[in-house]
Amino acid sequence: MNAEVRRELLRVLDALGGYTPDVRFGQLLANLSYMAKSFTAEAIWDVEDDELLSAARSHLKELSERHAHAS
Questions:
Q1: Which long-range contacts (CB under 8 A, 24 or more apart) does 10-17 make?
Q2: Boundaries of every domain in the chain
Q3: Parts of the chain with a pLDDT under 70
Q4: I need a labelling partner for 4 at 20 to 30 A (CA). Which of 12, 47, 54, 62 fits?
């Protein structure tokens, strides 16, 4: 596992937490795994860190754009 990818993933997850205060951390991880892989029970087990990071970045971009348009 790439330590740099993991650090970036944690940074993006922290940023996502600011946009999703009502979502529990486990829910956020599960949702991102579904976004990265597919909507299956296995997704949370099969998703790689880089795939999770990509999904997290995409979700953060979507939420930040939505927030900017709402302001």
A1: 12/53, 12/56, 12/57, 12/60, 13/56, 15/60, 16/56, 16/59, 16/60, 16/63
A2: 7-70
A3: 1
A4: 62
